[in-house]
Every structure is written in structure tokens, then in C-alpha cells.
């Protein structure tokens, strides 16, 4: 599923599929891009997509979606973002809103495939603390392969919470906005996920 660049005003057209990311071009002024996109600037929206697409796709894949399903979930999420921009509150944080839409889209895909399971955060340490820098890097060693394998075995809500916190770097307040869960529930999910991953790492090291 590939989408054409939007045109006109928000609500009239779908989001584009990015070809580059802002990791290559420096950090964008997200607030300014959101403002311009709300006013109907398709190029500003294209830049918003470019800035966030890689992270969104990584999140969808790590949530358990196959490559094609993850691509579809991300593109559909950006379509929904584009259509909802007129209702987006000026000055509100963009990324928690984006990830809430994406997380809901991923959950729907998982439910349809009967992959959604029951769920259950202290920060992880050692190897886990290095995940944001190492994630997706070429030449990952057995420890990080073990983490990926362990993630696949986690209940979906634990996996989602761990990824939002330790890979995407969201604060708990932002995670609450994304998931709709309370602070204590999110902390428990991250802790249980971290404990499970740490145990898997200990097995890999032994």
C-alpha cells in the first residue's frame, strides 16, 4: 500500500510515504511543521512524515506486525493524522498524539490476527539501557538478538510499554496519553517486561 502526497487542506487527502528521514537532515521544528500542516501545507506534512516514519515503522514491527502489515499500519496512521489535523489542538504535543493513533492501529491489526494477549516499569539497566542507541544497528550481537526474541514472547501491553519507554524514549506522562493506561499500570508493565528481558539476557550470557 503506497500513498500519494497530500494536497489541498487537511481532511481532503492522504499522507505521503517518505523516502528519507530527518536523521539525515537534522531535527525539524515539529511545532512549526504541525502549524503549517494544519493550515493546509502539504510539504510541511510531508516533512512531518519524513521526520517520524522510521520510528513509527520500527515501533509497529516491534509490536509484532509483519513487515507489510507494519507498513500499512504506519501509512494508515499518517492518513488518520492528516485527516484529523483540523481537530488537533494548537500547541499540544504531537508525538504522543501520533503514537496513540499508531498504537491503536497496531492493536487493531493484532486483534484481527488473534495475536493480542493479556498484559500486565523500573528502568532496565546494563544492556537494556543501551537499546535506543543499538536498536536496528548492523551487526547486532547475540545479546540483542536475545532481546528481540524475548520481546516477541511478551504480552502485547508489556511489549508496547517497554518499547515506548526504552526504545522510543517517551516520558510516562506521554505514555499515559498514548496508551490511556494509568501511571502505576505503565510502570508495572515496563518493570515486568524489563525483568523478563533481563532474565533472557542472563540466559544468553551464561
Tell me what you see in this structure.
The protein has 206 residues and is mostly helical. The chain folds into two domains: 30-112, Orthogonal Bundle (Rna Polymerase Sigma Factor, Chain: A); 126-205, Arc Repressor Mutant, subunit A, CATH 1.10.10. Helices cover 61% and strands 0% of the residues. The longest helix is centred in the C-terminal third of the chain and has 23 residues, at 183-205. This is RNA polymerase sigma subunit ECF family protein.
Determine the mean pLDDT.
76
The H-and-E topology, N to C, reads as HHHHHHHHH
Any idea what the CATH superfamily of the largest domain is called?
RNA polymerase sigma factor, region 2, helix turn helix motif
Radius of gyration: 17 Å
- How many strands? 0
List keywords for this structure.
single chain; Rna Polymerase Sigma Factor, Chain: A; Arc Repressor Mutant, subunit A; 9 helices; elongated; WH-like_DNA-bd_sf
Topology:
Layout: H1 30-38, H2 42-62, H3 67-84, H4 94-112, H5 131-134, H6 142-152, H7 156-167, H8 172-179, H9 183-205
Domain RNA polymerase sigma-70 region: 48-115
Region (Disordered): 1-25
Protein name: RNA polymerase sigma subunit ECF family protein
Amino acid at each position: 500500500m503506497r500513498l500519494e502526497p497530500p494536497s489541498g487542506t487537511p481532511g481532503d487527502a492522504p499522507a505521503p510515504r517518505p523516502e528519507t528521514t530527518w536523521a539525515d537532515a537534522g531535527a525539524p521544528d515539529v511545532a512549526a511543521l504541525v502549524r503549517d500542516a494544519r493550515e493546509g501545507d502539504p510539504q510541511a506534512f510531508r516533512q512531518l512524515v519524513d521526520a517520524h516514519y522510521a520510528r513509527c515503522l520500527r515501533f509497529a514491527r516491534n509490536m509484532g506486525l509483519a513487515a507489510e502489515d507494519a507498513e500499512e499500519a504506519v501509512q494508515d496512521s499518517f492518513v488518520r493524522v492528516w485527516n484529523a489535523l483540523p481537530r488537533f489542538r494548537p500547541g499540544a504535543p504531537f508525538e504522543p498524539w501520533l503514537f496513540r493513533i499508531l498504537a491503536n492501529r497496531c492493536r487493531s491489526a493484532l486483534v484481527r490476527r488473534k495475536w493480542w494477549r493479556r498484559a500486565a516499569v523500573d528502568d532496565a539497566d546494563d544492556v537494556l539501557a543501551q537499546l535506543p542507541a543499538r536498536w536496528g544497528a548492523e551487526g547486532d550481537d547475540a545479546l540483542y538478538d536475545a532481546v528481540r526474541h524475548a520481546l516477541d514472547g511478551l504480552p502485547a501491553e508489556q511489549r508496547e510499554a517497554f518499547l515506548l519507554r526504552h526504545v522510543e524514549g517517551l516520558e510516562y506522562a506521554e505514555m499515559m496519553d498514548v496508551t490511556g493506561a494509568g501511571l502505576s499500570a505503565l510502570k508495572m508493565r515496563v518493570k515486568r517486561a524489563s525483568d523478563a528481558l533481563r532474565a533472557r539476557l542472563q540466559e544468553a550470557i551464561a
